[in-house]
Amino acid sequence: MSNIEFFNQLAKSTNTYLNTGRMSLFDFQVYRRTFDDINKKIGLKSGDRVLDLGGGCGQIASYMARHVREVVLADGAKVALAIARKNLSRFANVTYQLVDITVLPLPFENNSFDHIVCYSVVHYLRDHNEFERLVLDLLRVVKPGGKILIGEIPLVDKAQAYFEERRKKPFLNFFLNARYHVKKFLLKAMYGFGKVDETQTTGLKYTRPVIQTILGKIPGMRFELLEQDKKLPFANSREDLLILRAV
Ligand SMILES: C[S@@+](CC[C@H](N)C(=O)[O-])C[C@H]1O[C@@H](n2cnc3c(N)ncnc32)[C@H](O)[C@@H]1O
Prior knowledge:
The protein has 247 residues and is an alpha/beta fold. The chain is built from eight helices and seven strands, in the order ααβαβαββαβαααββ.
C-alpha cells in the first residue's frame, strides 16, 4: 500500500479531528496551536496567496483561510481532499488540487505563491534526493522574498537526545512510555482496528547535518531549523525548516 493510499484510509477512518495521525487525543486546540506556530514563523498577511502542500483534510488550512487572501490546498490523497472540500466549504478563498509531490515539476507557475507550507509531509518521501528535488521546485514556485515552511520534520538526532535525557528519570520515563502506548491503543481503536494499515508507510528520517548538507549547497536562499511550540505533539523529536527565498 502506498503512503497516499494509507492517507486515503486514514481520512475515511474516523472524524476529521483525529485523521491526521496526530497523537493529541485530548488537545482540542492542536490545529489552532499548530497554525499559530506556523504563522509566528511566516507572518502571513491578509493579501497573501499561500500553498498548503500535503494539506490533507484541511485542518490547518481552515485557520490559514481566515488570515490570507487565497489558499491552494494540494494533496495526493483524493479522499482527504474530498473531506477538506466538504469541511472548508464555508471558505470561498480555498481551492483544492490533487497533486503528487514526487512528480515534478509541481503543477504551479513560477513565483506564484507568497508563501508555501508543507507540514508533516516530507517523511513520506522515499529518500533525501526526493526531498532535495522538492525543495528546488518549491523555490521555483514561491515568489522572491517568500517563505517556505517545511514543518514537523522528524530529526533522529533530536529524538535521540530527548530519549537519552528521559531515561535518566526512570519513573517519568515509565509514565511517559505507558501514556504513549495507551494513546496509541486508543487511536487505533478509534480508527477501527485493522482498518488503517500503517505498516507500509515511509518514515524517512532526517538529521540536522543531513539537512545542512542538502540545503547548504542550494544558492539563492537562507534556511534555519526552528523548534516547535512545546505543546505540539511532536515537539520533542521534530522541528520546522524555514526557507527564505532571496529577493
Ligand atoms: C500527516 S498528514 C499531514 C496533513 C497536514 N499537513 C497536517 O499537518 O495536518 C501527511 C499528508 O501528506 C500527504 N502526502 C503524503 N505523500 C504524498 C505525496 N506523494 N503527494 C502528495 N501528498 C502526499 C498525505 O496524503 C497527507 O495528507
